[in-house]
Amino acid sequence: MLVTGGAGFIGSRCVDHFVAKGHRVWVLDNLSSGPKANIHEWFAANWPEQA
Ligand SMILES: NC(=O)c1ccc[n+]([C@@H]2O[C@H](COP(=O)([O-])OP(=O)(O)OC[C@H]3O[C@@H](n4cnc5c(N)ncnc54)[C@H](O)[C@@H]3O)[C@@H](O)[C@H]2O)c1
């Protein structure tokens, strides 16, 4: 599952939803307006080197 703008307001909620449903999720986001903090929990859980 690819979520473009996944660090944004709507995108990050989509990421939460898809992860909760058991999907493996990728995010493409240039962080121009969405803060990385919106998806930080998933970085911390799965890719500690990028947290
Ligand atoms: N707390 C709140 O109520 C709140 C907070 C944020 C936004 N909003 C509102 O929610 C609505 C929708 O927000 P949204 O989620 O569409 O906007 P957003 O700006 O939160 O999300 C868009 C995402 O796309 C990314 N992006 C933009 N251009 C890109 C590019 N070329 N390549 C890769 N990534 C790119 C941005 O970095 C951002 O993470 C807006 O009306 C906004 O005002 C409300």
Q: How would you sum up the global shape?
A: globular
C-alpha Rg (nearest Å): 10 Å
Strand content: 5-15%
- Average predicted local confidence, pLDDT: 87
Bound ligands = nicotinamide-adenine-dinucleotide
Q: State the strand order across the main sheet.
A: 1-2
Biggest sheet: strands, sense, closure? 2 strands, parallel
Distance between the termini: 21 Å
List the helices and strands in order: EHEH
Topology at a glance:
Elements: E1 2-4, H1 9-20, E2 26-28, H2 40-46
Parallel strand pairs: 1-2
The structure holds nicotinamide-adenine-dinucleotide.
Task: Give a description of the structure.
The chain is an alpha+beta fold. It has one domain (2-50). Helix content is 37%, strand content 12%. It has helices spanning 9-20, 40-46, and strands at residues 2-4, 26-28. Strands 1-2 form a two-stranded parallel sheet. Helix 1 links the parallel strand 1 (2-4) and strand 2 (26-28). The longest helix is centred in the N-terminal third of the chain and has 12 residues, at 9-20. The model has no long low-confidence stretch (mean pLDDT 87). The structure holds nicotinamide-adenine-dinucleotide. Nicotinamide-adenine-dinucleotide binds at residues 5, 7-11, 28-34.
